Amino acid sequence: MTERELREKLQSAYGTMPDATRAAFEHSLTHHRVETRNSARMSRRMRTIVTLALMLMMLTAFGVAAAKLASVTDYPPPSGLTPEYMSHLVALNEAYDGDLLTLSVNDLVFDGTTVEVAMNVQPKAGKRVFMDMEVTAECAGRAYTLEIEGCGGGDFMSGMFLPDGTGSWSDSPFGFDGVLWDDDMQSPPEGVPIAWTMTFELLQPVWKVEYLPDAQYQALLAGGADTLEAYVQNNWRKQIITVTYGSLVEYQYAAEAAMLADGTITEPLSGSRTEQLLSCGGFRRADTIIVQFTTDFADEYAHPELVGKRIDMGDYDLVIDNVNLSFMRANITMHYEFSAAYTEDEIRQMTNLPNAWRVYVNGQTEAGYDAYANFQQVTNGAYGVDTPEQLTVGFDFYPAETDITRLTFVPIRNMGEKWDACHPDAEKGFTLELQE
Hints:
There is one protein chain. The chain is an alpha+beta fold. 26% of the residues lie in helices and 34% in strands. Strands 1, 2, 3, 4, 5, 6, 7, 8 and 11 form a nine-stranded antiparallel beta sheet that branches. α2 (19-36) runs antiparallel to α3 and α6 (225-237) crosses α7. The protein is globular and about 65 Å long.
């Protein structure tokens, strides 16, 4: 079998290989040829046989696993895998193989604010590990932290215990998405390189582990939060780690409360979640995995020409605070300004004050994106406000459209619990034209 024939068979059997796998194959070929080129004793036939053997060995060891690597492209946005989306795809292919688990950070897509990351995580057979993660970045001398908004396959928000004991996290593909913000909740400046650091902390339990069954967890919870806490605390005093749905949130909370009650500590635990868990006992730090990379995109998705624009709505003005429309996500915020200082009762009585809004894209009039105004709480009387400036409305959605040039906002009246019961008031709507 020639090299070409083997490549064709590989292509037929496994389809298009990931770049990392193909690169490994090519590296094996190139590396082998460099070592054997000056060997007069090795015939061309023998070189081909050795090369094919190396490739088949790599296929057995790596090819099947690599073909199953998760990718953010497995879950495309509503607008699809557009050329713009693909141009913002970053292949990382960072792999870790330790005593407790295997981990790979495969790829990500980033629009300057929102990032989605695809990974594979698999605990080793018979091993137990708690994995915590933090994502930070530096841009133009400022520090940023990723606020995780969604997870797939595991809990990246509060950390995850593997295996989780329920089987819900048994599949290898994992992922998360979030927003990169500084302390003032501002995104990095556009067009400036961003240096990222992903830190994975691996903690190995040194105490006995108890997976709390769902039925028992529900029964304890039915007795009140104190009943559940007392059970977990009792386990902690016996040096037993209680895992609930792959989480250690109850364990950490109960252990901290017990230490405060016992006088072991005089103040609540501080520091990172990893440091707090280590202070609770029952774990040792097994390893720390650090993945670093840089993204550098020169795109501009913000529309500063709209910031501060004022729309007269009668009893109040709407003022545009932010319009950011990328290939991944749309984020629009506005706030209300009143011509007079209204009281809460007067706000409740306003007939021109909608409790929700709908935005239509590019002149559409059928399908739109909805958002509650945060003063829905005010009109329900659940919360009060100190100043009218607290009344805001924000849209955060994943548009199916590309090349958005027009946004039409329509107030909604009589908003109930069901969106299909709403009544858009198109006559009181307004349109924003976007500059290219």
